[in-house]
Amino acid sequence: MAASDCVDLLIVGGGINGAGIARDAAGRGLKVALVEQADLASGTSSKATKLIHGGLRYLEFFEFRLVRESLIERERLLRIAPHIVRPMQFILPHVPGLRPRWQIRFGLFFYDYFSGRRTLQPSRSVRVGSGSYGALRPGIDHAFSYSDCWVDDSRMVVLNAVDAALRGASIHTRTRFASATAENGLWRARCIRLGSSEPLEIRARAIVNAAGPWVEQVLKCLPTVQVEAGVRLVKGSHIVVPRLFAGKHAFMLQNPDGRIVFAIPYEQKWTLVGTTDVPFSGDPAHVRIADDEIRYLCDTINSYFRRQIAPSDVRWSFAGVRPLWNDDSASASRVTRDYRLELTQTRDHPPLLSIFGGKLTTYRRLAETVLEKLQEPLGINPHRWTHRSPLPGGDLPGRHFRRFVIDVRRRWRFLPITVARRLARAYGTRVEAIIGGAKSFADLGEHFGAGLTAAEVDYLTRHEWAMTDEDILWRRSKLGLHMSDAELSRFAAAFDAGSSACA
After folding, report:
1. Is the confidence at residue 200, as pLDDT, over 70?
2. CATH annotation of 397-502
3. What is the pLDDT of residue 332?
4. Are both 84-150+232-327 and 397-502 of the same fold?
5. How far apart are CA 225 and CA 346, in angstroms?
6. C or N: which end of the chain has fewer Cβ atoms within 10 Å?
7. What is the C-alpha to C-alpha distance for residues 465 and 211, in angstroms, rounded to an integer?
8. Is the pLDDT of residue 503 over 60?
9. What's the rounded mean pLDDT across residues 130-148?
10. In this model, does residue 502 exceed pLDDT 60?
């Protein structure tokens, strides 16, 4: 993109909100540029609990509108992304002394009610002590079951960016927004590209500040702009441990401090445990899980399950900073997960819209609301379309994932079942671009371990902006969990060598 180019919309931030807005705007015919200082989804959007849900506990805080909107979006995301979004049953054990059974039953009634027309099973009471629920410790006899969805959060971000690019948007990763000044009715933005001595300059009719935890830092680069809303940073941390229970269901665990921890089946042989809610200050790029958070999550598991875990059982951990809209709540866990949009436009500068808060589930609706706010100053097409148009790879026949996996296996019989299922889940119908006319596994090029081949790596670097081994192993996939230390080292060396050769 040359400095003389002018776009309708410059989006700062390559998380779920930024990517979702880029997709929606490009699909309405706007000329869009997105800049992200690191990799897509490298911040909060890849470090969540990976749920598409209404937020059952938000009912306690009377956030009925947010719950209703989230449950509507849950159904829509199931339809447009059946490869990366899947239903999941959640078991909520009842523990005497915490929330009484009548309160839980009452909350689940409203949760089902707000769902309206749904494809997921309604809530019900279940008996504990046998079958797949037998992993719970003795003394827990009653539980409730309800439905929500799981999502591959990183891929949700990347697929929105892929679709935006296919519709004409320019996606610039490893590009930091440095400043912007108003000039002749436009923003003239200066961005710094990693490894380049020349800045990228973009003229834009409007800017959307979707920088997440860095939203206020971006505003500091625009000294003439004043906004009323503020951001409150809350750290959420997760651990991954060897699988704690059989079955495809997850658990929602109550704690005496009122917080909730999820235990979710993860990557076949692991359990994802999280999250914490800890006030955070500092640089969000350097957030780390603390030892006391690991102990807190381990203690929560140990209070519910027969199988006990210790910090030494943690295979992987990650922490993210949630940029919540500061509603002055006394507790970090009670801060609203709703979002607030601040649009400023004066005689001194063109439109600037800043996003405070939000959550993964409502990103698509948030993008629509952003474009509604910008509709008048930019003359945006009011036609909504993202609620029915599948994300890339999501056009599965009949939206039937299991049938699609069978078709993949039938066409490429040389694929091991675990590899076929993973590729189908990650790429949907776009798996064709990776496997194509291959007649054997060897045709996919070098095998780096855990089913990762040169063909997949080439696809990720060419079409999904992957530039480092971390991008591939821990965001575009979670294959880092399945590879040995030797395989990880070998792939990192091979990828670095290949990147250097192409530089």
Report:
1. yes
2. 1.10.8.870
3. 55
4. no
5. 9
6. C
7. 19
8. no
9. 86
10. no
Q: For the residues 416-440, what does the mean pLDDT come to?
A: 97
**pLDDT bucket at 46, cuts 50 / 70 / 90:** very high
Q: Where are the alpha helices (DSSP H) in 116-262?
A: 153-166, 215-220
CA angle, 174 then 211 then 208, to 5°:
105
Residue 295: CB atoms within 10 A of its CB come to 12
**Which one is predicted more confidently, 497 or 376?**
376
> What is d(CA 144, CA 93) in angstroms, rounded to the nearest whole number?
6
- In sequence order, which residues have a C-beta less than 8 Å from that of residue 257 and are 6 or more positions away? none
Three-class SS state of 51: strand
Decide: pTM greater than 0.85.
yes
At residue 440, does pLDDT exceed 70? yes
CA 175 – CA 400 distance, rounded (Å): 38
270-291 average pLDDT score: 94
For residue 143, the cross-strand partners are: 93, 126
Cα separation values, 266 from 74, 78, 137, 371, 429, Å: 20, 19, 21, 35, 23
Residue ranges per structural domain of the chain: 6-44+155-229+337-378, 84-150+232-327, 397-502
Q: Rounded to an integer, what distance in angstroms lies between the CA atom of residue 135 and that of residue 58?
A: 28
d(CA 402, CA 424): 9
Let me know if 416 is exposed, middle or buried by CB neighbors in 10 A (0-12, 13-18, 19+): exposed
Structure tokens at 289: 């899980």
Print burial letters for 231-258: b (CB count within 10 Å at least 16), e (below 16): bbbbbbbbbbbebbbeeebbbbbbbeee
What are φ and ψ of residue 126, in 5° steps?
A: -135, 155
- Cα dist from 378 to 8, 189, 372, whole Å: 7, 18, 10
Contact residues for 241 (Cβ-Cβ < 8 A; gap 6+): 270, 271, 273, 301, 309, 313, 314, 315
The CATH code belonging to domain 84-150+232-327 is 3.30.9.10
CATH value of 6-44+155-229+337-378 in 3.40.50.620, 3.20.10.10, 3.50.50.60, 1.10.10.10: 3.50.50.60
* pLDDT in the model for residue 227: 77
Check pLDDT > 60 for residue 42: yes
